[in-house]
Amino acid sequence: MLDDRHGDAFVAFEHVQKSYDGQTLVVKDLNLAIGKGEFLTMLGPSGSGKTTCLMMLAGFETATHGEIRLAGRPINQVPPHKRGIGMVFQNYALFPHMTVGENLSFPLEVRGMAKPDREARVKRALDMVQMGRFISRRPAQLSGGQQQRIALARALVFDPELVLMDEPLGALDKQLREHMQFEIKHLHEELGITVVYVTHDQGEALTMSDRIAVFNDGRIQQLAPPAELYERPGNSFVASFIGENNSLPGVIEEFQGDKALVRLDGGGVIDATAVNIREKGQRTTVSIRPERVEFKPEMMPPGAHTIEAKVAEVVYMGDILRARLAVAGSDNFVMKMRNTIGQTRLEPGQVIRIGWHPQDARALEPTA
Amino acid sequence: MKTTLILSTALSGLAFAATAQEVNVVSWGGAYETSQVEAYNKPFTAETGIRVNMIAADNPATPLKAQVEAGNVTGDVFDVEVSDAIRLCDEGALMEIDPAMLPAAPDGTPAVDDFVPGALQDCAVANIVWGTVISYNTTKFEGEMPQTAADFFDTETFPGKRGLPRNPKRTLYLALIADGVPAAEIYDVLGTDEGVDRAFAKLDTIKNDVVWWEAGAQPVQLLADGEVSMTTVYNGRVFDAMVAENQPFEIIWDGQYMDMDMFVIPKDAPNLDAAVEYLKFATDTQRLADQARYIAYGPARQSSASLVGLYQDGVTEMAPHMPTSPEALENAVMDDPEFWADRDAEMVERFNAWLASS
Amino acid sequence: MANVALDPHAAVVSTASGGPAALTSADGTPLARALARSQRRARRRAFLLVLPLLAFILITFVVPIGQMLQRSFYNAGFSANMPQVSAWFAETERGTDPDDAAWAALAADLTAAAEARTVAMVGTRINYDLSGTRSLFTSTGRALRGGIEPPYRENLLEIDQKWGDPQLWSVMREASRPVTANFYLAAVDRARDAEGNIVQVDERQRVYTMLFGRTFWLSLVITALTFVLGFPIAHLLATLPLRKSNLLMILVLLPFWTSLLVRTTSWMVLLQQQGVVNDLLVWTGIIGASGRLQMIYNQTGTIIAMTHILLPFMILPLYSVMRTINPSYVRAARSLGASSWTAFRRVYFPQTLPGLGAGALLVFILAVGYYITPALVGGSSGQLISNMIAMHMTSTLNWSLAAALAALLLAAVLVLYWVYDRMVGIDNLKLG
């Protein structure tokens, strides 16, 4: 995986701050290095600062403090049209008064390219997204998915080394969105371009990215590859933001190396891995993924602590069964079971004991 | 029988009121309309009980023509210019008015002899005589003050811009007067091509110094702002500015253009009887004299002249301000509706072409 | 096929082989007829809803304007009141000298018209085409009240020699048909000579073509000025934060809320030679006291005052269009390598065209028809064609000529509208 060495990073944010009103910081001391050819996603809720970062990179916002570098060159003072960065907008921003061909030709024209060259490039870019026969249509005559491809082709037609995408799939329906995710990823691999992708959809982020930067409150909360982010969230925000998650508040009772015993507020003791908690007696929130919760003793490691749970309801979801349990005073604890032949069917009211591998339960800082 | 008669006479006002009679009078609005309301309408309603609805128009002849053409006449009495009165009368739109039905002067002189010449037409009775006069701002000149129409065209001796209305009727005559044509011969000269050329040639001498005005209120404002030093203006308007607003203006009566306003009744007036009553009442000697209390327009009856007293401020003697005073009449041009009915369109076109050429 | 597989949204249209069979509804009626029937009631109800407005427009707008326009080519002032001589004209060729029958018909018609008090209407009608003849008719009418004896020609000539003028007879022949193009000829400074040929009027009388030209030129200048001044304001309005843009909007709309006369008069106060602007220029020493600028009572005054008055009509459509232009278009253009000027020129500006078109059309059409402002501040060089229309409506009462001038103006505006439709498309017009 790529290093955080700023020197040879393709894109680098160094101590970047941004304020719109001079009173509050929207981006607080951002440091980020993106390697050449990487697909990096900025993920976070709205207002977390991710789009602002993208706009600063594109040149539509100026950094209040700090430096942004592209291929080693500071670009704070470079106007957007001289940065050579391709960009795909949430609403596609296809020029409505131009045909598809004219839209694609536009970046080449402003670069002073001769007409035959332009035509060849446009054709190539359109073929790349399988839209060759739409060259003389207007954007309004295209479906959302088709517009999305044209926007992609337009951002790529002038061979930028860096492409920014601002929630490009937000307006598409689920099926099409998944399809396009695949296609974008495919293009990224094929062309070897660097992509910075902004989204608030964690599924999208997990599917496509080499690395994900989770934004909240103007800071990067965690920067990691998708699997690490999902399985080893660095703090409570990441744990709750990425994927479904059960949170159990409690107090650290004992450390055994990385392992910790946690006494839950609602009663009972469980195993967990200490992440950003270091002291005995500290309060903590333990985070467990629903699919890692076990209720069959043979699936748990020997000596695992278990706690009592009462089944509140079971929802049949096709591929899985989703059980809502009352655990340690909370009745919102979720457990997912694969819908296999011979899977035990739980009934509401049934009392079971649940447990997990200690590395699947992560003791994080307490939530507010 | 006798009691009935007395009663009906005494209660005639009441009787009118009971039948809710009314008469619609279309006039020009402004101070002029106010003077008519004060001098005619209020005493008329007090005496007869007939309510008078005053309707203002830019030029009452326009709605009159429109109403007659549409076959839906709603006005009863219209206050129009002489040319329009004659034109509409010739076109058969107006009721003919027999002068014999108008009240005689207090000394018994019949109306026919009492009204000034031209004031009685086949279908119209004049109520006022008004003049377009030259007026100047006394603060604009030092020493000698302008006195004649010729001085109006002498921008060397009397510097400053000149105000003139943007129409041929009230400009061409002034040019000829200033060029030495006696008032009595104006229409003879203007009736020839050479005469018209002569008038335009005279106008050419001040063309670049003229500020053209359109509405009657403009020349007074131009004079007050110092935008022009001399202008032609309706005598009632400039009187108002001099007396009511104490503006430093003076009037030159030389080359006055006299016009009359006339009452006419359309043939299909909805309240014909009340309209005739109103016409007779409003044009009697006393009413015409009363009107001069409110505006400086001359009464159309000679018998009214001696009754004209003080302006409503109680100090200004009105007689010298009347366009019908001996001084004002000395070199005055009387409007000739026949001439202008023939020539207006042609002159207007030529006048505008002249304006546009530099 | 790969495309279709990749794009679920790609439309796949499969047409059944063979022509479509006539479909029927469940009860067997043809589907088209069933559909029409089911929609008929809704349509009728919708029609009833708009009926009052339709009637209102018809009564207050279409009918009066239609009547007015009819006057421009139809004037029965002569033909209806002079039936016998009109009949003689109808029977004879143009250029025929009046014979005894003609003189007899003329004398009979004049006598009858004098009785009916319509001779002035006849005179007025002839005066439109031949100035100075109205009094010929009215005075002859007065002379004829006692009746007339043959020989008619000699007796009429004795009343007035002008009756022998061939030009007069030519004009009467023209007027004997109520439908005439003469008012349109007059409206373009043309007239018919004694032989009936169309000729230009005397140079000293030519005023309408020049005024039409000036009207369209000034309207164009004013439209251009409202664009130059209004475009940045509209852009500001569309991009400023709401609170500031609302304040600015009030400033833009302020002229709408003040009376036209007040606005025009305040321009007088500002621009006249002894006015505020000149005072300021003299005070600051930019111009000398003797060199005060003439900014009003000429074309400059008309242009300034009308640009101000018509500015909102340009700003509002522009604003409403600009507000809908997503800022990401310009950003996209910039990110694609366009400088801010290129992005404006190639991407932003073309998208404002529907608003610009609407605003320009609106301003131009309004400017072409304006007359109060030019009348008050236009002096001699700032008069427009509508001032002449107003004058013929209210002063000379030649409504036929006024209608002809107005019809030409209307035609010009319609042509403009048509050109706009061909070039930009009327459906691209956005008024707000």
TrEMBL record, chain A:
Q: Which domain of life is it from?
A: Bacteria
Q: Which GO terms describe its molecular function?
A: ABC-type polyamine transporter activity; ATP binding; ATP hydrolysis activity
Q: Which residues form the ABC transporter domain?
A: 11-242
Main EC class the enzyme belongs to: translocase
* EC number(s) from the headed UniProt entry: 7.6.2.11
The record's Gene Ontology cellular component field reads: ATP-binding cassette (ABC) transporter complex
Which reaction(s) does its UniProt entry say it catalyses?
ATP + H2O + polyamine-[polyamine-binding protein]Side 1 = ADP + phosphate + polyamineSide 2 + [polyamine-binding protein]Side 1
Keyword Metal-binding carried by entry: no
Record has Chaperone as a keyword: no
Keyword list (alphabetical) reads: ATP-binding, Cell membrane, Membrane, Nucleotide-binding, Translocase, Transport
Q: Which family does it belong to?
A: Belongs to the ABC transporter superfamily. Spermidine/putrescine importer (TC 3.A.1.11.1) family.
Complex formation:
The complex is composed of two ATP-binding proteins (PotA), two transmembrane proteins (PotB and PotC) and a solute-binding protein (PotD).
Q: What does this protein do?
A: Part of the ABC transporter complex PotABCD involved in spermidine/putrescine import. Responsible for energy coupling to the transport system.
The name under which this protein is listed is: Spermidine/putrescine import ATP-binding protein PotA
Species of provenance: Paracoccus tibetensis
From TrEMBL, chain B:
Q: Does the keyword Transmembrane helix apply?
A: no
Residues in the signal sequence: 1-17
| The species this protein was found in | Paracoccus tibetensis
Q: Tell me the domain of life.
A: Bacteria
UniProtKB keywords: Signal
- Any idea what this protein is called? Putative spermidine/putrescine transport system substrate-binding protein
Record Pfam families: SBP_bac_8 (PF13416)
Q: Which InterPro entries match?
A: SBP
TrEMBL record, chain C:
Give the record's keywords alphabetically. Answer: Cell membrane, Membrane, Transmembrane, Transmembrane helix, Transport
Q: Per the database record, which ranges form the ABC transmembrane type-1 domain?
A: 212-420
Membrane topology per the entry is: Multi-pass membrane protein
GO terms under cellular component: plasma membrane
Q: Mainly localized where?
A: membrane
UniProt xrefs under InterPro entries: MetI-like, MetI-like_sf
Keyword Transmembrane helix set for record: yes
Residue ranges annotated as transmembrane are 46-65, 216-240, 247-270, 303-321, 355-377, 397-420
A biological process term (GO) from this entry:
transmembrane transport
Domain of life the protein comes from: Bacteria
Query: Where is this gene product found?
Result: Cell membrane
Q: Name the Pfam families on file.
A: BPD_transp_1
Q: Which family does it belong to?
A: Belongs to the binding-protein-dependent transport system permease family. CysTW subfamily.
Q: Would you tell me the protein name for this molecule?
A: Putative spermidine/putrescine transport system permease protein
